[in-house]
Input
Amino acid sequence: MKIGVLAMQGAFAEHIGVLQRLEIEAVEVRKIDQLDDLAGLIIPGGESTTMLKLADIYRINETVKTKASAGLPVWGTCAGAILLADEVTNAGPHMPVSLGLMRMTVRRNAFGRQVDSFEVKLPVAGLGCEPFPAVFIRAPLIESVLPPAEVMARLGNGTIVAVRQGNLLATSFHPELSLDDRFHRYFIGMAETYLAQKRA
Ligand SMILES: NC(=O)CC[C@H](N)C(=O)O
Output
């Protein structure tokens, strides 16, 4: 199975590294034809405005929307989660509209500046009892979700930081920067289900 990582900008190399450690063929996606034959796509962290603009120039946004709507598993981490949201409360004047695939409202840069980055042990529904070491870097928070989107994880104060909506997954934090690969294995599981359904 092949999993793509959008490689316009941001932390794509780290995701590729985790996938390769898990012996998954990982593809850097910069052109629309590289979206063919994927079992899943990861949209990494980085800078959401820049990433949206570049993906728009290379006409990737529309193709990702079409493929995700047809069932392709897509996982957005940090800036990638912002791209998946159907509403961004503080988008800024130069930010193109997001892909709008998930029924959730996100607030960018919700935890302060880059120096305020932090790591927490986060209980995550679906990943077992052991909390996940979640790394937050100038992260967005998820203000609200609407069905069919479902909350997978919240911080101790109730802030939503991970959401699943069918074939779509969003995390405010960076699982590719921790040594724990359970989130990547969870997404690979979604990709396996997708392939099995396609073959059936
Ligand atoms: N680590 C990240 O992906 C940060 C996201 C970035 N602050 C943005 O709003 O686009």
